[in-house]
């Protein structure tokens, strides 16, 4: 039987759950490059892939008539919510990884309809669709069955899906660390895990650099404590 954990308890216990998981954003950069110079009303081959990507992460409410390569009103709205992230770098090679979107809840404010969630760890070559638990976390490499393949070391760290999907996938090829003495070229597992579980629960990104849900994360840093903005966000989403 899968273990059960209340949402509030899950957030509080994240500090001591430093087992196997990790995060950033799925590989869609080539498709997103199609948007450079694009505007509403244009048609570009590959825009349907962008729509599918935004749908998977809760930013785009797609229907049958929208499965096209047309830059429509719904796509424009979704992109404003997503605010397409970039990978930032400075002259000292301090790379910051983009982690998925901008603050606000996911489109439509999806959330779990219960306070007791089951979870499990499952790592394999491919994702198994029939999941017995609400939240399924695991490490995967390259293509792993969800149409969002990982890209090896660097760039994409992991991805999570909006409620009530429950999937958390981490790139097994990254240089992860669970140590308090992290090196500059390592990614802290627990820091990224807390951020990703925020997405699993329905939180978008925060503009507050002190928040766990801030959109960017640098290698060699540890960020494991919830900020006031994180707490206020989850309370607002699950207030009733």
Automatic annotation (TrEMBL):
The record describes how the cofactor is bound as: Can bind about 5 Ca(2+) ions per subunit.
Required co-factor(s) are: Ca(2+); Zn(2+)
List the InterPro entries.
Answer: M10A_MMP, MetalloPept_cat_dom_sf, Pept_M10_metallopeptidase, Pept_M10A, Peptidase_Metallo
Q: Which residues bind Zn(2+) 2?
A: 195, 199, 205, 213
Protein origin, superkingdom: Eukaryota
Entries under SUPFAM superfamilies matching the protein = Metalloproteases ('zincins'), catalytic domain
Name it.
Peptidase metallopeptidase domain-containing protein
GO terms classed as biological process = collagen catabolic process; extracellular matrix organization; proteolysis
- Please provide the record's keywords in A-Z order: Calcium, Hydrolase, Metal-binding, Protease, Signal, Zinc
Q: What are the positions of the active site?
A: 196
The signal peptide, as residue positions, is 1-19
Sites where the protein binds Ca(2+) 1 = 174
CDD domains linked: ZnMc_MMP (cd04278)
Residues annotated for Ca(2+) 2 binding in this entry: 134
Q: Which GO terms describe its molecular function?
A: metalloendopeptidase activity; zinc ion binding
Q: Where does Zn(2+) 1 bind?
A: 144, 146, 159, 169
| GO CC term, one of those recorded | extracellular matrix
Among Gene3D superfamilies, the record links this protein to:
Collagenase (Catalytic Domain)
Q: State where Ca(2+) 3 binds.
A: 151-152, 171, 174
Q: Which organism is it from?
A: Gossypium klotzschianum
């Amino acid at each position: 039987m899968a273990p059960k954990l209340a949402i509030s308890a899950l957030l509080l216990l994240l500090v001591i759950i430093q087992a196997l998981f990790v995060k950033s954003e799925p590989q869609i950069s080539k498709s997103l490059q199609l948007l450079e110079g694009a505007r509403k009303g244009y048609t570009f081959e590959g825009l349907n892939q962008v729509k599918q990507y935004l749908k998977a992460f809760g930013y785009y409410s797609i229907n049958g008539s929208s499965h096209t390569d047309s830059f429509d009103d719904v796509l424009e709205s979704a992109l404003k919510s997503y605010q397409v992230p970039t990978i930032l770098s400075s002259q000292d090679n301090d790379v910051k990884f983009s982690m998925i979107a901008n603050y606000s809840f996911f489109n439509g404010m999806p959330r779990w309809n219960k306070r007791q969630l089951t979870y499990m760890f499952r790592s394999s070559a491919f994702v198994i669709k029939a999941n017995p638990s609400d939240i399924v976390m695991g490490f995967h490499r390259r293509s792993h069955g969800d149409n969002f393949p990982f890209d090896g070391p660097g760039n994409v760290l992991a991805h999570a899906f909006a409620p009530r999907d429950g999937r958390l996938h981490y790139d097994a090829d990254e240089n992860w660390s669970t140590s308090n003495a992290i090196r500059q070229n390592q990614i802290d597992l627990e820091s990224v895990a807390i951020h990703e579980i925020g997405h699993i629960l329905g939180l978008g990104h925060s503009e507050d650099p002190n928040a766990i849900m801030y959109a960017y994360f640098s290698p060699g840093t540890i960020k494991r404590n919830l900020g006031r903005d994180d707490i206020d966000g989850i309370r607002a989403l699950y207030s009733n």
